[in-house]
From TrEMBL:
Residues 781-795, 832-848 have a biased composition (Acidic residues). Pfam families: BRCT_2, DNA_ligase_A_C, DNA_ligase_A_M, DNA_ligase_A_N. GO terms for biological process: DNA biosynthetic process; DNA recombination; double-strand break repair via nonhomologous end joining; nucleotide-excision repair, DNA gap filling. Its EC number is 6.5.1.1. This is DNA ligase. Belongs to the ATP-dependent DNA ligase family. Residues 807-818, 886-896 have a biased composition (Basic and acidic residues). Residues 367-495 form the ATP-dependent DNA ligase family profile domain. Gene3D superfamilies: BRCT domain, DNA ligase, ATP-dependent, N-terminal domain, DNA ligase/mRNA capping enzyme, Nucleic acid-binding proteins.
Length: 987
């Protein structure tokens, strides 16, 4: 019986507005380029907002053609293309007529390999560079409407007879009518990943205030675009509720930022609900009068698998009678799992789709089982605003569980951390996924994450898991940030069971790339890697039948090395030679102190797994031994000398040479007189009107510079240089300026490091002093910077490998054919785009439209009126003053100014301590001043203060030894986006 059609729905999308023109392709490509080049969220929003406003004026109010290209991963109407990078590369090789051994053919087919050039790891860039050599197109002839039609044709060509030939013909049309840069972006659209760090959560609110709410309940870009084309119209509350037979975006669990005790405390005194976390596919079931629809978490319709009525599918025919007769319509949220009737247990996730494809053959064949954990819609009433407790109560009354077909999630009440650990122990002994702690009064938040639903896994809390030393025998090439070489390592254990006659064999065990720093990757990529022959492979290695444990390259044993790997647990897997693997592995450190002979044996891995299955989760003994509370007056915080900085309160200001300029002075760590030199430099700056700061942070009212006299690059300076926000001057520039009585030119000889913006100036490369008449060099630069601040931000791409080499830069130049799209000198403000402007012009020509209107920024007053967030590392005057004004307390500055009245090191330390606290807590950690705190894991100390290290080690050695590290460890971990080895940061 064919799949029954969906019932008529009164909530279907309204007929869309008609555009009176089409968007040219090149302006849209420029939009993507500019969004990629701009890091700041607010500026990206302004670019997108300007484009949308221009669209309304020049094209019309139907944004669906734009949205489905801007959010290709959310376009449900376009089926799969059947073209991943490899297939796309093969198709392009064919349509370009490249020979198999042609260098460009090899670049496309092996786009991840370092030999692919600078764009290695970024397929769109490699494609762009290959096409650039052969294409003469400097302007695209397509519009967005035509591109959408071509992409529809590309989808239709997939799966048919001679599909590769048909798709090649479609791609040839793209090749003939678009620029190389555009083809790179079109490839990203086909791959459904623009990689511009913008999702529906950021794009839709710019289009309309209610767009995200509507998308959360329907998951349909067409409906969003057509229902909300009028920016003045607002949705009623009921229109933001769940709609039957329309997929919504479900509520998600949040990852914990604290231990179990903290999670339990945040749930309140009335307890919480403990659900078992299921390892299946998130599914929402919609039913009305015997008609069913099944949708995945991403809104994909899976009704063809499970059945649209009780006569079709692998599940629906078995649901007769499970709903109360009074139920006319219902929506359930749950997890689809594979069930084994013979053993009456849940099977691994990989078996689900096989069980769902057809009705089970035989009584003991695996079958899909829907495990329900929430009721969201009942008889035309939306229950989102009901508490979880009420929703659960209704759920068990209207649905009758049927073993192996539809069941309720294993759930119980909880109130203590001990109880959570006991439940987690039982779940993990059964190879379960973990737990989800839910607040009983929690409302259901569409597409939301908050502390009402918290997932608890062994690797998230209490430091549980496995740590082992493994040998690295292979690697795979990476993409994106880690492009250009090996980025994922394949680990092995010594196969001690099969070693005979001195021949040592190893067996693959796991793979991971997380935890590696860029320095690690640089060192690893210098190893003598050899190409991995997929057919034979290294003779000393035992691998699985599949391809997961076979990399692009491998190392001979004598060239290999050992790494320490930490993971949640050891689990069964057919993907590796060990028949076991690690769950959520992370590389802790490269073990230079170990040889390959010290790596873990296969028998030790097996023993570790056996011990892990029997291991009970240890309780927190220290928390149970609560000491009697005593009232102790709080100690005044102390400050390490390196953070105090020189006392400049008594320095008399004798000149205004450095007015409106700020400086961070860093001493040379290799110089014996480094601190004295720093003090003298700070005094010289203060005498001439400059402001001194301890930490580099952008200031709205002055230009900040770093002054450094050393030759090596300390880690804190390296972090500042990597951000490319501040010039690093040599002390000679300060001294020369004071001697001259005016600011010295910003020439290359005065810089330890120049930002990209500075290095591009003519003054930087000049040898002689070149000053404009009547203006000093710094005035010239400052004026220029004030004009091009936003432009320079846009030039700093998130990833330099993103764009084609031949693609134009985003700097506005006179000969840029699209300069008008990005200039705002004579552009009208968006408020002037009134109804008269938006009327269709019969004489208009979209090819000669003034592109300035597409990207003219919104009203500057609106932007300036928004309070800008303070940097996580900010301890400067602006942040301190704002905080103290809120508290009604006295304000203070980290550095000294003319009106500074008193120097208080304790007061200053509070700001340094607060800055570190913000960094730690913003990234999931907690801060304490009590060395006896049982949860304490790390103690942060002054970079050059080793006098208290031994005493701190003694005081924090029980019940377990803590890590004593310098504060730079925090910044380094955040910069590398991973936990680094503490031994590299000992004082």
């Amino acid at each position: 019986m064919p799949l029954s059609p969906a019932p008529a729905d009164q909530h279907s999308a309204q007929p869309g507005p008609q555009n009176y023109a089409d968007v040219p392709l090149d302006p849209f490509i420029d939009l993507l380029e500019r969004l990629t080049a701009t890091k700041k969220t607010r500026k990206r929003d302004r670019i997108l907002e300007a484009f949308f406003k221009a669209h309304r004026k020049l094209v019309g109010n139907d944004f669906y053609p734009v949205l489905r290209l801007l959010l290709p991963q959310k376009d449900r109407e376009r089926a799969v293309y059947g073209l991943k990078e490899q297939n796309l590369a093969k198709t392009y090789v064919k349509l370009l007529g490249l020979q198999q051994n042609d260098p460009d053919s090899l670049r496309l087919l092996h786009w991840k390999a370092p030999s692919a050039g600078e764009g290695a790891g970024d397929f769109s860039r490699v494609l762009c560079e290959v096409v650039q050599k052969r294409s003469s197109n400097i302007e695209s002839e397509m519009s967005l409407g035509e591109l959408n039609k071509v992409l529809d044709d590309l989808c239709k060509a997939h799966g048919g007879k001679d599909s590769q030939e048909a798709q090649a013909r479609v791609l040839r049309k793209i090749y003939n009518q678009t620029t190389p840069a555009a083809q790179g972006w079109i490839a990203r659209i086909i791959l459904k990943d623009l990689d511009i760090s913008m999702t529906e959560a950021t794009v839709l609110p710019v289009l309309h205030l209610d767009a995200r709410d509507l998308y959360n309940v329907c998951g349909d870009l067409r409906k969003v675009a057509h229902d909300l084309f009028n920016i003045e119209a607002r949705l009623a509350k009921e229109e933001k509720q769940i709609q039957l037979f329309k997929p919504f975006l479900p509520m998600l669990c949040t990852r914990p930022t604290e231990r179990i005790e903290g999670i339990v405390k945040s749930m309140g005194k009335d307890g919480f609900i403990i659900d078992e976390k299921l390892d299946g596919e998130r599914i929402q079931l919609h039913m009305r009068n015997g008609q069913y629809r099944y949708f995945s978490r991403n809104g994909n319709d899976l009704t063809h698998l499970y059945g649209g009525n009780d006569e079709e599918g692998s599940l629906t025919p078995f649901l007769r009678g499970v709903f109360d007769p009074r139920v006319e319509s219902i929506v359930l949220d749950g997890e689809m799992l594979a069930w084994d009737p013979a053993s009456k247990r849940i099977l691994p996730f990989g078996t689900l789709r096989g069980a769902a494809k057809e009705r089970p053959k035989g009584r003991n064949a695996p079958q899909p089982c829907f495990v329900v954990f929430d009721l969201l819609f009942l008889n035309e009433d939306c229950l989102l605003d009901f508490s979880l407790k009420k929703r659960r109560r209704n759920m068990v009354h209207v649905v009758e569980a049927l073993e192996g077909r539809i069941q309720f999630v294993a759930s119980r009440k909880g109130s203590t951390a001990k109880g959570v650990r006991e439940v987690l122990t039982g779940v993990m002994e059964k190879n379960g996924e973990g737990l989800v702690l839910k607040h009983p009064l929690a409302k259901y938040i569409l597409n939301g994450r908050n502390s009402d639903w918290v997932k608890v896994k062994p690797d998230y809390v209490d430091g549980m898991g496995e740590t082992m030393d493994l040998i690295v025998i292979g690697g795979t090439f990476g993409g994106g940030d880690k492009a250009g070489g090996v980025s994922t390592l394949i680990f092995a254990a010594l196969d001690d069971a099969s070693n005979t006659a001195g021949l040592q064999r190893y067996t693959t065990f796991a793979s991971s790339g997380s935890g590696l720093t860029f320095a690690d990757l640089t060192w690893i990529r210098q190893k003598p890697w050899k190409t991995w022959d997929a057919k034979s492979g290294p003779k000393f290695l035992t691998t699985a039948k599949g391809s997961k444990d076979k990399g692009d390259v491998y190392l001979e044993i004598e060239d290999s090395f050992v790494v320490t790997v930490r993971a949640a647990e050891i689990i069964p897997s057919d993907a590796y030679g060990m028949r076991l693997t690690l769950r959520f592995p992370r590389i802790m450190r490269i073990r230079d102190d170990l040889s390959v002979a010290d790596c873990m044996r296969a028998s030790e891995v097996t023993q570790a797994r056996a011990g892990n299955r029997k291991r009970k989760l240890e309780g927190d003994i220290e928390l149970q031994r609560k000491k009697r509370k005593t009232t102790v007056p709080p100690k005044k915080p102390t400050m390490g000398p390196v953070y105090e900085g020189p006392n400049l309160s008594k320095i008399a200001v004798t000149g205004g040479l450095f007015n409106e300029m700020g400086f961070v002075v860093m001493s040379d760590p290799k110089s014996r007189t480094g601190e004295q030199d720093k003090k003298q430099m700070c005094e010289l700056i203060a005498k001439n009107g400059g402001k001194y700061f301890q930490i580099p942070k952008k200031k709205p009212d002055l230009q900040l510079y770093i002054v450094y006299a050393g030759t090596m690059t300390p880690y804190d300076l390296k972090l500042a240089i990597n951000k490319d926000e501040f010039d690093v001057l040599k002390p000679e520039w300060i001294q020369n300026s004071v001697e001259r009585g005016k600011l010295a030119p910003f020439q290359k000889k005065y810089f330890f490091h120049a930002t990209k913006r500075r290095a591009d100036t003519d003054e930087y490369e000049s040898v002689e002093v070149e000053e404009r008449a009547g203006a000093s060099p710094v005035e010239s630069v400052t004026e220029d910077e004030s004009v091009t601040d936003e432009e320079s931000d846009e030039e700093q791409t998130a990833r330099p490998t993103r764009q084609c080499v031949a693609a134009k830069e985003h700097r506005i130049v006179k000969d840029d054919p699209h300069a008008a799209w990005f200039t705002s000198s004579d552009a009208r403000e968006p408020e002037q785009l009134n109804e008269e402007d938006s009327e269709a012009d019969s004489d208009s020509d979209t090819e000669e439209v003034d592109l300035e209107a597409w990207f003219a920024p919104p009203n500057e007053e609106e932007v300036d009126g928004v309070a800008q967030p303070v940097s996580s590392g900010a301890v400067g005057a602006g942040a301190v003053q704002e905080e103290n004004e809120k508290d009604g307390k006295e304000s203070a500055r980290m550095g000294e100014t003319d009106d500074a009245s008193e120097y208080d090191s304790g007061f200053l330390f509070r700001h340094f301590f607060k800055a570190l606290t913000v960094l730690v807590e913003r990234n999931g950690g907690k801060v304490t001043e009590d060395l006896r705190e049982p949860k304490l894991t790390h103690v942060l100390v002054d970079t050059r203060d080793g006098s208290r290290t031994k005493e701190l080690m003694k005081r924090t050695s029980k019940p377990k030894r803590r890590h004593i590290v310098i504060s730079e460890w925090i910044e380094a971990c955040i910069a590398e986006e991973t936990l680094l080895d503490e031994t590299e940061f000992v004082p």
